[in-house]
Amino acid sequence: MSSQSRDYAIKHKMKLNVFAAGICIAALASTAHAEGPALNLELPAAASSNANYSQFINPRPYLLALNEGGVDKGPVEAPAAPAAEFKPPLFTGSKVHQYLGLGTVLAVGLTALSAPDDECESNCAAVSQPRQTSGTTHTTMARTAAVLAAATVATGLLYHWDDFHLEDGFSDPDNQHVMLATAGALLMLFAVKKSANSSVPTSHAGAGIAGGVAMAVAIKLTW
Length: 223
Hints:
Elements: H1 3-35, H2 44-57, H3 60-69, H4 93-113, H5 137-159, H6 173-196, H7 205-221
């Protein structure tokens, strides 16, 4: 046998051995696959996408969100009613003092309007004609004004005593109010007393009018 024939025989034998070994390996692999669990050929990315898809189509989170919105939070409190506007009472100590002061000024005006024509303010000594000192509209209104003035000062001292401070001086409106109102009341009392004690015409209207003006200015300062 030549060398070429021998080489060809060796190569042919090696091919047969490789073919036989491949057949044996394939047979063993098929036997192992039949006896073991089925092989999962699904790619990891596909499995992950399936999990995300199942979570997306699962309505549970959406239902939970709806349930949270409908949770009973207990009784709802009604909105508080708006506070009623404060209205100060009509009659207090301070209000009474104010009303008395206004009544005094009104009475002084009516007294001046009801004065008789025979009243004199200058050279009254020359007039000796007797006059009526009570029972007339003029005398009634004059005495009413004097009483109201006294009551005004009394209630002012009672309910506004703390507003008067000498150390604040006369420029303080509260001090001016007290001083003018007191001076006005004293002038009105003096005019009424002077007129009532004289059976003949006497000069008193100036004092009464001055007292009424002082009372009016006092009221205006603190109105």
